[in-house]
Each structure stands twice: as C-alpha cells, then as structure tokens.
Backbone:
C-alpha cells in the first residue's frame, strides 16, 4: 500500500534544467506539494516538470526567455507565498534527496508541533561522476523548515532562511546529494554571482566598503 504523501512543500528553481531535473523531482515525488519557479526555460525543463506537478510559475513577471536570477531571495520568497503547507523544503534542480532523508523528513512532519526544532540544516554530500565523495566532509545549509518559525529568505546571492527569535536550528542526520558541475558551468555560475555582488556594491563609498569588509571578517 502506498504511503501517504508528506505534508510539506518542495520548492525548486529551474532554468534550462532538463539534464538534471528528473532525478531531482523523482527524489521528492513523495511530497504533497512541489512548486517549480522557472526562468522561462527553452529546453525540455517544463515538459519534465509537468510530469511531477501542475504548480509551475515564472520566477519574474518578464516574458524574456532564459532569465538569470538577479535576486535569489526575492524569487525564493515568491515561492514561500505560493506554498499551501506549513513545512517547506527547497533544493536546487541539480540536487537530489537520499531515501533516508525523505523518511527522516516524513517523521518530522508527522510530529508537527511536537518537534524540538522547526528549522533544520540539511547535510550536503558531493557527487563526482556518479560517485559519492565519502572522504569529503558534508556542508550544511538550512533547507527544511516550518514556515511560521521563519522570517523568510534574505541576501540576493547565497540566500538563506532566517529563523524567528527563539527558534534554534537542528540538523538532519541524512543527506541530500550535490553533483559537482563541469568546471566551465561552475565558472559561469560564479561569474554571475560576482556580477550581482559587484552591482550591489556600485553605490557604496570606499569607507563604507571597508567597514562592511571588516564586519564580515570579524563575523567569519
């Protein structure tokens, strides 16, 4: 007998993600709601997405094709508003969940308000040419949370979800998998991130810039 769907929304951002999207969505097919926010892709992304969900929306109001995101938090928050469930998970279109992490999330969602934590870091293990790099330590990001316990996404690049005051962050035991990209694709992505940061800094005077840098160094 099929298990009941996990009462949690999954959000995925896409842009010409046809090569990786099916594996991503197959890993989250047990979730009750999947929301796709697309940058007007021109490959087969939307055809694949429609096999898993009818909740497919544009990332912006523009009709321009192949739009690269300039403010990741704005797009993520757009998806938050579209969610109809209180629990929320976001992953990238080239990532996929382990079966164990799906079941761990299922258990937490069933517990609902009896949980100790309402925002969770998701361990991220890296994959190269289909092989999980077990010798490489996982990284951790807050990817799974109870929406009422958060203040939404912040930061244009490397967006993060922020818990409301009084809520601590827990950590899931089981990972998601993150395939390492072709070096040229990775370079393109990072160049885009740098362009966004450079644009954000264009109106900052040098004294203010150094104060911000000093604050970041101290925080680090």
Residues:
């Amino acid at each position: 007998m099929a298990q009941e769907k996990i009462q949690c929304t999954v959000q995925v951002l896409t842009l010409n993600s046809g090569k990786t999207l099916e594996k991503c969505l197959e890993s989250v097919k047990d979730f009750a709601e999947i929301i796709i926010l697309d940058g007007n892709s021109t490959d087969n992304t939307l055809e694949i997405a429609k096999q898993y969900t009818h909740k497919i929306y544009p990332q912006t109001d523009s009709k321009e094709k192949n739009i690269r995101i300039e403010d990741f938090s704005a797009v993520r928050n757009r998806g938050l508003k579209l969610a109809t469930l209180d629990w929320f998970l976001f992953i990238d279109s080239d990532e996929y969940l382990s079966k164990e992490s799906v079941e761990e999330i299922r258990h937490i969602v069933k517990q609902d308000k009896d949980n100790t934590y309402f925002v969770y870091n998701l361990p991220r293990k890296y994959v190269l040419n289909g092989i999980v790099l077990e010798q490489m330590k996982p990284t951790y990001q807050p990817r799974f949370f109870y929406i009422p316990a958060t203040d939404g996404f912040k930061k244009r690049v490397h967006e993060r979800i922020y818990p409301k005051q009084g809520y601590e962050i827990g950590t899931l035991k089981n990972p998601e998998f993150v395939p390492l990209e072709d070096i040229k694709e990775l370079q393109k992505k990072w160049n885009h991130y740098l362009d966004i940061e450079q644009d954000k800094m264009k109106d900052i005077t040098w004294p203010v810039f150094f104060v911000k840098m000093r604050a970041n160094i101290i925080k680090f």
Remarks:
- Confidence is low (pLDDT under 50) at residues 209-220.
- The chain has six helices and twelve strands.
- The radius of gyration is 18 Å.
- The chain has two domains: 6-180, 182-220.
